[in-house]
Specification:
The chain is an alpha+beta fold and 378 residues long. It contains 8 helices and 13 strands.
Length: 378
């Protein structure tokens, strides 16, 4: 929560320091994004510093002189309202949970045509920032196990309520000064607005999103294994300094070398096998819940060995999932977006009557199909 506004233009809609929102006095900006503004504030009632997040989708709303948030166009009313409801629902959800590695929401409310949530001020670094900075100690298995345990506890808390994060990545986990990690917010309003403003669109970080997140909403089910893939991809990034190849490429032909094939100082081969298991391209080949992953980390059960040429002979899919050419990496060169930067992918609707989708032109990638065994709600 320490990043400054990305540009002066993005900060134009921000409330000025000194503005009062009930008992909260705004003291400055912590961050500005496309879907919200985060302020540093002081709670005069409880006499503590807090962060205030305001719902503000910049593409469709602006600020009047009276602090009220108003639409730029009436045609955006439905989408703005859906995003607002999603923002409030996320605040309600986070307020329900009390886990040290989940972002805590003290309070939330609606006013001025928008909504707000009050949260603690985080003072640490994201894993992305930490990995790019000079490290006081190497990132080894012992360090990673200390990182994973509280994060798995946070995910287990969410999953027990049928809630999945679906946006785990190095820039969405912050390490506080005392060393404990915090899983940052879900970006629920962003996803809802993106889904409504661009048909069948998902905003994803390609290197951290498993293949089931690319499907049309509702066509395949996501579950604990979805978050565990993204967590495994985050560990991969921390160990090697680079994210794994996008899942959309690996599910077709997985030529990525398993982590366990690398010699990494301070990491046992058994631990690396577990991370490889988390990173299996096919959902059914991953740990299906936190309990299964924990058992492997404790050495109670061995993880499955990495498959050689995992996708060389794919079984027919129970449901065909079609990916657009934009969702498939080109044969040569990386995707235009960075591995941990969001990218917009438009998903065509699933086709029926077949188990494999052929390419519309030689050398292009139109889609992929394979069985996706699922066991939990999306």
């Amino acid at each position: 929560m320490s990043e400054p506004p990305r540009s002066p233009a993005e900060a134009e809609s921000a409330l000025a320091p000194g503005t009062r929102l009930g008992e909260f006095e705004l003291r400055g900006l912590l961050g500005v994004g496309g879907f919200g503004i985060v302020y540093r504030a002081f709670d005069h009632q409880l006499e503590r510093e807090v962060a205030i997040k305001e719902y503000m989708p910049a593409s469709m709303a602006g600020r009047t002189e009276t602090m009220h948030v108003s639409l730029r166009s009436r045609s955006d009313a439905e989408v703005f309202s859906l995003g607002l409801r999603s923002f409030v629902n996320e605040a309600k959800l986070l307020a329900r949970f009390d886990h040290p590695s989940l972002l805590k929401v003290y309070r939330f409310w609606e006013a001025n045509g928008t909504a707000y949530m009050a949260m603690p001020v985080l003072r640490g670094q994201t894993l992305k920032e930490l990995r790019r900075s000079a490290q006081p100690a190497p990132i080894d298995e012992a360090w990673l196990r200390r990182l994973l345990e509280p994060l798995l506890g946070a995910l287990e808390t969410l999953h027990a309520e049928g809630v999945y994060h679906r946006d785990i990545a190095p820039d969405n986990i912050e390490i506080e000064p005392d060393g404990h990690p915090v899983l940052l917010d879900f970006g629920a309003a962003r996803r809802v607005i993106s889904d409504k403003t661009q048909t069948l669109t998902a905003i994803l970080k390609p290197a951290y999103a498993p293949v089931e997140q690319y499907a049309e909403a509702g066509s395949v089910r996501q579950g604990p294994w979805t978050d565990l893939y993204a967590l495994g991809a985050t560990v991969h990034y921390l160990l090697l300094g680079r994210a794994p190849a996008p899942a959309t490429a690996r599910v077709v032909a997985d030529d990525q070398a398993p982590l366990s094939s690398h010699r990494i100082d301070g990491c046992s081969e058994e631990f690396l096998h577990i991370v490889d298991w988390m990173l299996a391209p096919r959902p059914g080949d991953r740990p299906q819940n936190v309990a299964a992953l924990r058992a492997a980390l404790r050495g109670e059960v061995p993880p499955p060995q990495p498959h050689a040429a995992q996708a060389a002979a794919l079984a027919p899919w129970e449901r065909t999932v079609v990916l657009s050419p934009a969702a498939m990496p080109a044969a040569a060169g990386p995707p235009a977006a960075g591995p941990d930067e969001p990218v917009t992918l438009v998903m065509p609707r699933p086709m029926t009557g077949g188990t494999r989708v052929s390419s519309p032109a030689a050398g292009s990638h139109a889609g992929v199909s394979d069985a996706l065994p699922m066991a939990a709600m999306s």
